[in-house]
Design a protein that fits this description.
Helix content: 25-40%
Number of helices: 13
Distance between the termini: 60 Å
Bound molecules: pyridoxal-5'-phosphate
Order of helices and strands: HHEHEHEEEHEEHEEHEHHEEHEEHHEHE
Length: about 450
Amino acid sequence: MRNTPLYSSLRAFADTQPLRMHMPGHHGKPLHMPELERFSELDFTELPPTGNLFSPGGAIEAAEDLWARAFGMSACLFLTGGSTQGIHAALTLACRPGDRLLMDRGCHRSVYHAMALLDLKPIYLSRPWRREDGVSGPISPQSVEKLLKSHPKCKTVCITSPTYYGVLSDIPAISHIVHQYGGILVVDGAHGAHLPFLGLDAFRGADLTVVSAHKTLPVPGQTALLFSGGLFHGDDLRRAGAIYGSSSPSYPMMAAMDVARAWLEEKGADDYRTTAAFVSDLRRTFSALRETPELRLDPARFVLNTPDGYVRKAALETLGVYPEMADCGHIVCILTCADRRAEFARLIEALNRTAPPAGTAARQIPPPPELPERVLSPRQAMFAPVDVLSLQKAEGQISVDQVAPYPPGVPIIAPGERIGKKHLSYLSEIGYNMTEKVRTLSHRV
Ligand SMILES: Cc1ncc(COP(=O)(O)O)c(C=O)c1O
């Protein structure tokens, strides 16, 4: 494969058979685990020939620049701590401690954790409930504008796109509005690392974008990337990434991202397009979440509508087919360029074999209730002493966790909010496990 600056330089250095008097302790010798035997060869530490993730220059930055170019961005930082690390770094760059944050209420818990670390005060953007699909729709540019207008001090906006269900928001249009108000747009694109390779304009205009390479590309777990659209420089990304990342980032993980990008550019994007075409056929064959002019979807994500997703998922698992996620009305399958004809055939067969009896009514999923009363900031709540209660006994208590069932994939209760009767009734109605434990503000303080 051509054009893999990091992988090629590590390979060339390993081939010189250096005497490794440094970390990691395996010194390049085979690991005592057959599956990982050769992993150690490229598992280096910071040395003059291998470079340093958190210093500019060298093969690592060359490899990051190629990723930035593939995404149409100005700078990129490799992450070995998942999108979680990237989200923390991005919000550290975009906000000052104590700032207000206009955020998609459906953001991942890493955003809630960043709010606690940085003492950010959330203003929540809600998503329209799509009754017919039983999922939350995209964030509208109008809703972003309305809240920016009414909260002029709020300068950072954080949105998840695509969602777990593959719902895309119009990031170019939203970024236009955010910039008109002098703000910074952070996009959590954890589920969308493949989208630019499919030719989608998924992140244009975002000031900071985070993607989990490991979720949808052929790379190891925890690999992820942070991009700047131009406002921040490579040095900014490195500085913020280093706060939350290990000072011993994994070279094999970084090299795997280098090679994956080169492979996607040479061949993998075609494989991904084949997968997207297959998903498009699946959506026509089975009852599934489908694109409409108001609902743009990740072309590779397959969301099956089914009367009881948990039962169907269990049935699929007895056939050896493991979906990503189930809820009371859907099953979410992540299909990638790794899936070929044999996997497609196996999935179709399993879906046919587990089909519910004809005429089984689809479950109507109720819309989420209104937001609970907010009592504490996320920081006050998340760093407070806690009691642990089952949800069914937690009415009236202040939650320090988010309780975020799928659907809607949006916290029904967020940190610092009071757990109300109607929130508990909703959770019970959608089949949430009410014996599940929730951490609440301790009365012993
Ligand atoms: C929307 C979203 N953002 C961020 C993350 C965190 O990603 P990672 O597991 O790569 O740290 C996840 C993980 O599932 C996610 O779903």
